[in-house]
TrEMBL record:
UniProt entry tagged with the keyword Membrane: yes
Keyword Transmembrane belongs to the record: yes
Species: Fundidesulfovibrio magnetotacticus
Transmembrane segment boundaries: 48-67
Any single GO CC term annotated in Swiss-Prot or TrEMBL for this entry: plasma membrane
Localization annotation: Cell membrane
Main location: membrane
Keywords on record: Cell membrane, Membrane, Transmembrane, Transmembrane helix
RDD domain span: 2-80
Pfam families per record: RDD (PF06271)
Topology versus the membrane: Multi-pass membrane protein
Protein name from the UniProt record: RDD domain-containing protein
Amino acid sequence: MANAVVWLYYALQESSPVQATLGKRIMGLKVMDLEGRRISFGRATGRYAAKLLSGGLLLLGYAMILFTKKRQGLHDLLAGTVVVCR
């Protein structure tokens, strides 16, 4: 149940017109697709599922952010998304 609530929070917020969770808004960030458009609820759901994989790989999926050209984690690469400054 708790995981469903977390999934809905991330998917609804990142696919909303705001394109960000509360933390991303505070940091001045937003999530978009590779063409600069707002992501769909389905893509946001895929991104959330891929975050579970990123974290499950000893956080190596998140560490990829340091080494990829567009600063994408594994979850962004799999979902075709990028996090950018507003």
